[in-house]
Amino acid sequence: MQLKRPSPRASERYRSALIMSLPALIGLAIFWFLPMFQAINLGFRDFNMISGRQTWAGIENYLTAASDPLLRLTFGNTILYFLLEVPIQMALALGLALLVQRSLAWLRTIILIPTITSMVVVSVIWGLMYHPNSGLINSLLQSIGLPPQPFLISSQQAMPSIALLMVWKNVGFSMLFFLAGLVGIPRDYYEAAATDGANGVQLFRYITLPLLRGTIVFLLITNTVTAFKVFTPIFLITKGGPVNATRVVVLYIFENAFRFNKMGYASAISVLLALFLLIVSVYSLRTSRAS
Amino acid sequence: MSDRISDRLSLARAGACALIRSAGLILVVLFFILPYLWMAGSAFRPREEIFSYINPLSWRTFIPVEPTLDNFRHLFFELNFGRALANSLFIAGVTVIITLLICSMLAFALARIDFRGREVVFVIVLSTILIPFETIMVSMFLTIQRLGLFDTYAGIFLPWVADAFIIFLLRQHFKEMPDELQDAAIVDGCSLFRVYWNVMLPNIRPALISAAFIKFVFSWDAFIWPLIVTRDPGKMVVQLAISRLFTDQNVLWELIFAGSFIGTIPLVVLFLILQRYYIEGVVTSGLKG
């Protein structure tokens, strides 16, 4: 018979648990759940920040959202950004993880520094690097004989440019998780397969990739959600331009709330974005579990 | 005889591989370091020189020909950058302390106190991770306004201190503590709070350092929220100050480099020292999650 563990009386347990949990729970309630419900509520209203007046508007904001060409444009832009940034970032992260995994700890550190650098500094410095005349990147291109590019001034190159700088910043984060995932793969698998005559590519395809599935799914979901929240580099260096090429959803929310004084509409878009991200996450989890 | 040739071929191939690998390595390193080198070099450049050596590429592109501390002098004495630094430091410090306190308490309760509904509470806490900040920033702004905390320091850091990720991280570590520690303390007559404060906390110090650093980085690097919630220039944080330099009417490029330098270097130094904690904190939470 197992000895029962010493445990304080139920009343003390519940009282301690309550007191210790309360501050954080209150914080979560006020600053996460309340704003969430507030956003849903506000989505059904017209809110004028200047006058403070709220009027019930039913689903009008959502109807507007459904037929708003600018919203559709921003959503399209955000999807384009997502398609550019996430695959490249994850592929690069995996490659770097494979490169760094056994030695080269110093390289891992270097790759991680952008990850802890603030979004403001990253945006500002890259914004300057992309300058058509005085920027470092064009200078580098010209030094190897390539023509200078317009980058942020061109409506075709602007979004890929933003995607590149975000890849640069985020790849360290994904690499960390790939590194941890790689550690979990026993060397014996590789050795056994190698003695059976498998080459490097086959080892990667049939051992590494499948065993990294959990990591890949986790990173896919995390990076997708992060991609749809992109804001700061665009806010600081392209401001949605040129010609709306980089106007993304969160920028549109921000402008509606704090510039156009349409907080109700901004909230409605926020709710739609949150729902979209929730669906994407749940769907990804489901499909990854099924197969 | 053919053995020797194939030996030589594989040697040559190995040599070529090593060369490609080294070249690739250099490219990777440059890709990640060059922006910092350019930023650091330009931070010490006088205004006249700021973009003069960008083309054609030379060592002068990265190293100032006439280095100067004028940019930093300007930032600190004329633009009150020191104030912004102090603000960021203060807010980050307060954030870390309060976060660690209240999140570790909740984490302890969730990990080591037996009460009904414990798992439900944990799931509810975790669910907040699904809510992206950008989707509630508008209503968070209104909430802060209604609480009378607009344009206050508290308005900046209060929304940050209840952090589901930190709670999750610390709960993991509390759970991993051996039961005997707690049992012995209880038998000795410790209240649960004493168990938490005197027994458990000291034993998860690495996790606390991880959490502290992760939260510090988050607070120091934050931009959108301080942008929304403050108006008083005296309350500007470093990131806001740097962004102002960039979006100003009269842009002074050399100051942008210097400001970015100041905004980044302390954190990089801290990271070099504490990187192990940062990595472990981020990765172990994600893996077990």
What would you call the structural class of chain A? mainly alpha
Taken as a percent bin, the fraction of beta residues of chain B is under 5%
Give the percentage of residues in beta strands of chain A: under 5%
The tally of helices of chain A reads 13
Summarize the structure.
Chain A has 291 residues and is mainly α. Helices cover 73% and strands 2% of the residues of chain A. Chain A has helices at 10-43, 60-67, 69-100, 105-116, 119-129, 136-143, 158-183, 187-195, 200-211, 213-228, 232-238, 249-258, 263-290; strands at 45-47, 54-56.
Main features:
heterodimer, A: 291 residues, mainly alpha, MetI-like fold, two-stranded antiparallel sheet, 13 helices, 73% helix, 2% strand, B: 289 residues, 2 domains, flat
Describe the structure.
The complex is a heterodimer of chains A (291) and B (289). Chain A has 291 residues and is mostly helical. Chain A contains 13 helices and two strands. In chain A, helix 12 runs antiparallel to helix 13. The radius of gyration of chain A is 24 Å and the shape is globular. The mean pLDDT of chain A is 89. Chain B folds into two domains: 2-68, no CATH class; 71-288, MetI-like fold. The N and C termini of chain B lie far apart (58 Å). The mean pLDDT of chain B is 88. The chains are: A mainly alpha (291), B mainly alpha (289).
